[in-house]
Protein 1
Amino acid sequence: MTEPTPSPPSSPSPEVLRDLVVDAARRHGFHRVGIVQVEPSRRSELYRDWLAAGRHGEMAYLATPEHVAGRADPRAVLDAARTVIVVALAYGKDAPPIPGGVRGLIARYARGTDYHMVVRDRLQLVAGELCAALGRAVASRVCVDSAPLAERELAERAGLGFAAKNTMLIAPGLGSYVVLGELLVDAELAATEPPARDKGCGQCRACLDACPTGAFVDAFVLDARRCISYLTIEHDGPIPPELRRALGNRIFGCDVCQEVCPYNAAAPDRHPPAAELTARDADHASPDLIALAAAGANQLRQFVKRTALRRVDRRRLLRNVAVALGNSGEARAVPSAFALLAHPEALVRGHAAWAVAELVEHGAVDAATATSALASAAAVERDAGAAAELAAAATRTA
Ligand code: SF4
Ligand code: SF4
């Protein structure tokens, strides 16, 4: 007599897997989670129109065939993908008290540990739990701005929130101070039930009116070339002179179109923001510009270590610092601006020249002293771009 062969354990149902993943995501600290089946984007035409208008600026990677294909269909990112798990993690909107001095400003999302690392690590834990439940390896891909997905559209479909006029995703109860992540998997999970539709932006247009650089072409349409986030982070060359004053003291990113949003001003969600994403200290929210201008390569490396600030190199960061020094209008900023006139990077020297002329206009330094410093710098300048900046600044201070 032969023993009956035991039947293989059956796979958990898509509904069981959905509940398991939602539970895992919540346990790993995500504030919102939604699950959708993979399908082509419904907005790829809008994206192509945005590219065709050149509104992506120097971000050429956004227009590559791979990027456009990924935004059109997640299967271009992971061939075997059947399901997308979309998560949101809230970061803090409150800043530590700002000490005195000449201070810059860093966008809220970048004040703590780099969110790419935080979200990726947590999503990998979720993927591990899914593998364990299925008893097999799962083809998966974690995406945190690291793959060309139409993430806000996916987040909206997954019921995390709505696409707002400022082009952010607003998660009711959390606002827009959230970072998103996606986990593509080859397993079939049942979709989560989206919550009742929120009323959205309605007639509000506070963000469109508040943008310091007029970067919104229209509701939902941002011209990245005018956006301070783009200019201070992605943009590699000189910041257009006509936009420099609008940067104020922002040296990395900009929160203005979120600060004015009534959804962010509303009562916060009962969940506290992710601890890793809150500001490390006051200097990572509002750094001392004079100290940054004087910092050596090692000090700057330490300052940006394990933060999203790593996205800008030293020359771009000091370019932004030079602009903020000029905008401070402070006499205390003058020695730093003068010192940056001799910086090894031409980009920094050019923006320091602009800063010196601004400081004269603010009355922080007298014109004769500034003109003399600019003339000394111009006498040894060999870079055409920096020389042009020095000449333009000298014309203003003469
Ligand atoms: S981030 Fe700042 S500059 Fe960019 S659109 Fe928003 S308000 Fe305007
Ligand atoms: S400020 Fe008003 S228009 Fe802008 S995103 Fe918020 S609700 Fe929408």
Protein 2
Amino acid sequence: MEVTLLEATEDPEDLVCKAARNDYSGAFVGGQSLEATMETVDGDTLEAKKETLIGHLLDHGHFGPFEHPQITFAIEGVSRSCMAQITRHRHVSFDVQSMRYVSFDDVDPADVREGEMVVIPPSATDPEWVGRNQKQGAVDEADVEKRAEIFRDTIEDAVESYQELLDLGMPPEDARFVLPIGTKVNIVMSMNARMLMHVADMRAAADAQWEIREMTEELLDIAGEWCPITFDHYEREMKNRKNRLAP
Ligand SMILES: Cc1cc2nc3c(=O)[nH]c(=O)nc-3n(C[C@H](O)[C@H](O)[C@H](O)COP(=O)(O)OP(=O)(O)OC[C@H]3O[C@@H](n4cnc5c(N)ncnc54)[C@H](O)[C@@H]3O)c2cc1C
């Protein structure tokens, strides 16, 4: 998968601070500088004041100001299974690559065996991989070879059948019914900083599936560059506390 930043609010943490200070200030935050707005917050520099205020907001569960900054990600090549999981989050906006208007008629089914078009989970090929709800621990090499063979044969067959149906004139929107849930999809998704922390609470957690966890960790890496004070605090003090932002 590839996760990239498409767009994001500029100076997101200035915005969080202005919004939060608005609540407790007699002055109009729209009519003064950030320095003036932050004047009474503890800290020797503006950066230190931002750290004080943002840390205080997060520690006290005052999450509203984090709803103002927005970020948009472009995600390439996650499974439709992962897509079904992430699209359950109702405060995230999505655009999802269509299988009605995009047909995979030029993919070579032989390449599908090697990871083209369909995500191959690590448990199909790695004997050391132990997934959640797995009935046993590590398995022997022969079993994993068999697993990989069944998995690769099945996805190759599915894509071959799909393309045959297209050749027989079936519309892509119906031919797609034979494709596996691991079929790759590209997604554009937007959310605010509060929602990103909520998504991370649920989807970076140990009980989430490996693929959405991997995607969420990449979202968090980007978020750490975008809102460094907020997501550094999140990683240090809040991550892995279940449902912290959704009481
Ligand atoms: C490990 C894991 C396993 C899962 N397994 C399943 C499963 O087997 N089957 C399944 O169906 N789902 C499953 N889910 C999905 C899960 O139940 C949620 O639907 C999904 O994670 C969305 O999160 P959310 O409920 O916090 O809502 P979001 O849409 O992310 O909303 C954020 C918060 O807003 C509030 N909110 C939003 N909408 C409403 C509303 N209509 N009414 C009241 N409050 C609202 C809630 O506080 C909510 O927590 C699983 C999730 C995880 C992380």
Protein 3
Amino acid sequence: MKPPHSPAIRTLLRGICKRCPRCGQGPLFRKWYTLFDRCPECDLEYQPRDGDNWGFMYLGTAFVTGILAVGILLLTPPNLWIGRVVLLVAAVVALGGTLPNRKGFAIAFDYVIRRHWDDADTSGPPEPVDAPTQERDPQ
Ligand SMILES: [Zn+2]
């Protein structure tokens, strides 16, 4: 019997928060951007096939770039050079600062897709349940 799975949104949030997409307990990164091969808690292999999450990484980068583009359209700096410098600093901070979060999102999205197609490693312990459910007696 397969372990119960958490909803996709929760799985993606775990990835964005740099936690294991399956158990939510183990960290994804050993250092700032050095990925563990497997979850220290549930032994999930984070990248079973190299390159599977590049597309999701691209989507995360495009999302942040889109936010910057909207900012460019909405803001009108008093001086063009000041605007360019502010945009450059904002781009470096936004793209560089969110790199581990976007990588975590990509790994979690890849996990959701693999789980959907029954390709994910489900041999680890079942996912923790947030709140215990109590079954009521139908009487
Ligand atoms: Zn885990």
Protein 4
Amino acid sequence: MRAMVYRGPYKIRVEEKPMPALEHPNDAIVRVTLAAICGSDLHLYHGMMPDTRIGHTFGHEFIGVVEQIGSSVQNLQVGDRVMVPFNIFCGSCWFCARGLFSNCHNVNPNATAVGGIYGYSHTTGGYDGGQAEFVRVPFADVGPVRIPDWMHDEDAVLLTDAAATGYFGAQLGEIVEGDTVTVLGAGPVGLIAAQSAWLMGAGRVIVVDHLQERLEKARTMAYAETLNYDEYDDVVVELKKRTDYLGADVVIEAVGAEADGNLTQQITGPKLKLQGGSATALNWAIDGVRKGGTVSVVGAYGPIPNAVKFGDALNKGLTLRMNQTPVKRQWPRMFEHVRNGYLTPRDMITHRFPLEQIPEAYHVFSSKLDGCIKPLVVPGAG
Ligand SMILES: NC(=O)c1ccc[n+]([C@@H]2O[C@H](COP(=O)([O-])OP(=O)(O)OC[C@H]3O[C@@H](n4cnc5c(N)ncnc54)[C@H](O)[C@@H]3O)[C@@H](O)[C@H]2O)c1
Ligand SMILES: [Zn+2]
Ligand SMILES: [Zn+2]
């Protein structure tokens, strides 16, 4: 089969790989019909994630058709159209029993630190991902869900991660009616976080980024106020000015370890690797939230330490909440919001690339060329 293959930082190819096989009675093989590239894939692409091995196939946002099922699979049939959450999880361990699907204890040799994720390096279990024609889906009775008839494929694929993560980011913020919510990052995750904040009762939503087309999307798609951090010497001062000099009630950090906006962080982080990445957005969140407020972090950080303003967080009495998204837990409520038009994930899609052109897709998305906000990848096309 044809699959995206990692060859080293900034080196992606499409290669012929063996078809994935059933390795366990509860596995399924899914023929991928639509995949996406996530902002998290860029951390892999840039060589930021430890133990990203040559030959690994990325891709944790995908939908497809069940091609083959193992002997114990009961909930799926060959031919079913399914959406597959990015988490691989067993459904029955201590963590899964409490809905903490992203913290499953049974799917990763490194499970005390992180759960299982498709196509996300050996740090998260080493499972090959869905930027390919076929993918092995472990615990097939647990993760995948049949795509409802009314749901658009392009919404379904985004619900497997980006949209669910934006919603989760807003949830972790514990928004109370009337709250002012600041969202750092107007990528796919931040855009849905902004839409979701309204659904949870926000009175004001302010989105921060420096890419004009994304800020424009935040205005049109999420009716948010926007702030371009390139236009201010000190973005935190501007955020405070806009919030009665107190700070926002809730800040959602939807940027992660490759944040820009602070040269020292960029040099010591992504460039010299003296820390796990740049904690600029996280520090803006800590500085930009009011005392006693909540910082929700869904931006991704690797396992290596970062220079985070922890003392300030302590002295301000902040609540810090964070996790990888337990995607399937969000779905029942999100499906209703998508069906009713309150969440509109596919509005953010700007590009569709055939699988054979995935190196170009990574380049365009990574360099934010051509107004790219969210690229999809279509196996078997072109
Ligand atoms: N927790 C999870 O389960 C989970 C799931 C999906 C994605 N993520 C992470 O969420 C983050 C966002 O994902 P995405 O797909 O939207 O990524 P993206 O790269 O498309 O978007 C990130 C945005 O942040 C902006 N940005 C950079 N520095 C900034 C700063 N200092 N302040 C404000 N904005 C800044 C960039 O211009 C960009 O628009 C990534 O770190 C990704 O790895 C986490
Ligand atoms: Zn992702
Ligand atoms: Zn589990």
